[in-house]
Write a structure and sequence with these properties.
282 residues, Tetracycline Repressor, domain 2, 0% strand, 2 domains, single chain, mainly alpha, flat
């Protein structure tokens, strides 16, 4: 019984969910100037719960639709059809989606509408859009930005902002990671007859597009550094965002094998974290 519970938990990708919750907590704290009285505590809790549960449901349904692909790309890591049946997975997905909407409703009509929209988009991403040329990448990147933007709903007295700037940054950082992941999974995607950008346009063009988004990240960070940055922010952003972005451009350009792109994808995940945490220094 407890073994099955462990697999249900793993299916939601708990580390990613903790990162989502932590990201929203950081932006709420920053927006409130670290004054607890500026945060609507109950509403903020429901915002985070709704966001996390919506993401968890999306992770579950994605694995259900990816059964055949994961047999090729991640045979040892797959959980659906190996430890949990597809039917049980769908029941678990339904429960998570329903609870997420209940939490979203408690957070207000805006959060309910956002969670419902993202939940529907995640379902159709997994069922139809994931294998379509760039559409799935754009959708996931948009939803990553929405995680940042939704945090604003938990603050009733906003002292500091930057939600729009960092929602854009989250979008820009997620896009190259999604593209690199598609390059990494190209063999499994071909077997599924997907039409991802690397398959449709070739690996070289996909790597170039990922690099263009990394350049846009550098441009946005430099813009914020010049406009609002202070010494600590500029040092942090240069060392942990701008320089790593430059290095990732080189890494992606020189990658040849699946393992190379796996490392680049992992580094891009770290860049998402360091990039978003830079808001703490503004």
């Amino acid at each position: 019984m407890f073994k099955n519970l462990r697999y249900y938990l793993l299916l939601t990708r708990p580390l990613n969910l903790l990162i989502i919750a932590g990201t929203q907590a950081v932006f709420m704290a920053h927006a409130s100037a670290y004054h607890w009285s500026n945060i609507d505590t109950i509403r903020a809790l429901f915002v985070v719960l709704a966001t996390v549960l919506t993401a968890a449901a999306g992770n579950v349904i994605n694995d259900i639709f990816d059964i055949e692909e994961d047999q090729i790309n991640n045979p040892e890591k797959r959980i659906i059809a190996r430890h949990i049946s597809p039917k049980s997975g769908r029941i678990f997905y339904t429960i998570l989606a329903a609870i997420s909407l209940i939490c979203a409703f408690q957070a207000g009509y805006s959060m309910f509408a956002l969670s419902l929209t993202i939940g529907i988009m995640l379902y159709f991403y997994s069922s139809d859009l994931k294998g379509e040329n760039l559409w799935g990448n754009l959708l996931i990147s948009f939803m990553t930005g929405a995680v940042v933007f939704a945090a604003d709903l938990g603050v009733h007295t906003r002292v500091n902002g930057y939600f729009a700037e960092y929602a854009l940054l989250a979008f820009l950082i997620t896009m190259p990671r999604e593209i690199v992941k598609d390059i990494e999974d190209i063999e499994g995607d071909k077997a599924q007859e997907y039409n991802t950008y690397p398959i449709a346009q070739g690996i070289d063009k996909a790597a170039l597009l990922a690099s263009i988004f990394l350049i846009l990240i550098i441009v946005e960070m430099i813009y914020i550094m010049i406009r609002d940055g202070n010494l600590f922010y500029n040092i942090y952003s240069t060392v942990l965002v701008v320089i790593p972005a430059f290095m990732l451009i080189i890494k992606i350009k020189t990658s040849k094998q699946k393992g190379d792109y796996s490392k680049a994808s992992l580094y891009l995940k770290g860049l998402i974290l360091t990039g978003l945490l830079s808001v703490l220094f503004l």
